[in-house]
Amino acid sequence: MQTILNFIDGRFAPAASGRTIDNPEPATGEVYSTLPDSDAQDVAAAVAAAKKALPAWAATPAEERSRILLRVADLIDANLERLARAESIDSGKPLALARSVDIPRAAANFRFFATAILHTRSDLHQTGANVLNYTLRQPVGVCALISPWNLPLYLFTWKVAPALACGCTGVGKPSEVTPMTAFLLSELLAEAGLPPGALNIVHGRGATAGAPLIEHPDVRAISFTGGTSTGAAIARAAAPKFKKLSLELGGKNPNIVFADADLDAAADAALRAAFTNQGQICLCGSRVFVERPIYERFVDRLVEGARSLRVGDPLDAATQQGAVVSREHHAKIAAAVEQARRDGARVRCGGGPPSAPVSPRCADGSFYLPTVLTDAPPTCAAMQEEIFGPVVTVTPFDTEAEALALANGVRYGLASMVWTRGLDRAHRVAARLEAGIVWINCWMVRDLRTPFGGMKDSGVGREGGDEALRFFTEPRNVCVQLREHTP
Length: 487
Ligand code: NAD
Hints:
Blueprint: E1 2-3, E2 6-8, E3 11-13, E4 20-24, E5 31-36, H1 40-59, H2 62-78, H3 80-91, H4 95-116, E6 124-127, E7 131-139, E8 142-146, H5 152-165, E9 169-173, H6 180-192, E10 199-201, H7 206-215, E11 221-225, H8 228-238, E12 244-248, E13 253-257, H9 263-275, E14 285-291, H10 292-308, H11 327-342, E15 346-349, E16 371-374, H12 381-384, E17 391-397, H13 400-408, E18 412-413, E19 415-419, H14 423-432, E20 437-440, E21 455-456, E22 459-460, H15 465-471, E23 473-481
Parallel strand pairs: 1-5, 8-9, 8-11, 9-10, 11-12, 13-14, 13-19, 14-17, 16-17, 19-20
Antiparallel strand pairs: 2-3, 4-5, 6-7, 7-23, 12-22, 15-16, 18-21
The structure holds nicotinamide-adenine-dinucleotide.
């Protein structure tokens, strides 16, 4: 049994109350570690440590902050195998995915922001002959950095790295469902020489550890990634206190395939976009819309692809589909598919757990087969609400206008995909899709300099590149009146 501890003021400690939460391995259902069941007392200690560390860290030259964060990136690389295995065990994702995507991206997050801060510039506005306005950007202060379970270290570091790079200090609250790699990161932060208190990590539940963190009066900015209803609760709590807020929330992303598309490329990408990480990525293409002439062929391809995905022990190198993150989440996915059936959807493949255990070790694991649904009415829950599992709907359309209406006909607006060889159509549709990200003839191609985030109920604000540097700094306009030269 492994014991996960909080990381406060450079020291490892259990929750002040001594309470713990059991942490099961999704692939087996067995509790393999415990984490602190932290509450307001632990949060207060963590925020106090961040507040104490703020003046010195904010005053540390960017070159020195950069050096420390680059060391963190190197340490993540050096610990790739250990971190990837820990992530796979903790979340149920295939080890191959953690090794090739999650952990390398965590290192990339640190490297990107460690170097970005060496290349920033500030605005100067000259007003007439004798007035200069310049913009000072200073760290926003103590930040709350709250992340979800689907890409645990990847998304946690996507917040921690820019916050620290900008000279902020903070308190990280990883998901209680997948706390392990954030705990391992705290060891690496200490080893890299991050000053005590610059980043504190408090483990625990949203209601008891997350809520006091966002409400704490000394927390000036909140960077949150998670579900839309949690985002709404955070916005309600933060608004009266005028905290700076970045909310990255749910998605129900459309993937539009026109008949002139490269069918092979579109079908391969639709399969990956639907089922990578068991469909538990906010950017997954969970609603596929296919132009009628190629619809039947496309459905056949997708079903064939979904059936061929190897569901298995996440630690097995050949596994393409691991376990979903928890028993509770498995039950939610199953209930959503049952509801879709009642709403008239046809289950073309999947629609339940594998008929036999994927391996003896994983007999009690939370596995769900890749599932393709057709004939789902556009207004039904399966087409409107996030399932966040290995479930995709496929729907035909006849015109570009209809495709856009279907794609935009949800409350979410995170990512979208368009497959076509028509240049005009690609740009026309991209400009009309209500989404923060439009991928044309690709999926999940990421450049960390680009703005990342969603519109409508998918969130407020953007992460990535300059957007993150702006979020974690407070701009101040300094206006200077120059006196006339009198010889
Ligand atoms: P969640 O909202 O349940 O939890 C996210 C985090 O918030 C966890 O650390 C949790 O403990 C904490 N939390 C819960 N209630 C809180 C409260 N009242 N105050 C403060 N913190 C609280 O989300 P989840 O189930 O962990 O993650 C899945 C969701 O995240 C999906 O909806 C998915 O689309 C979304 N997501 C969005 C993005 C994006 O970039 N837009 C990326 C990944 C995941």
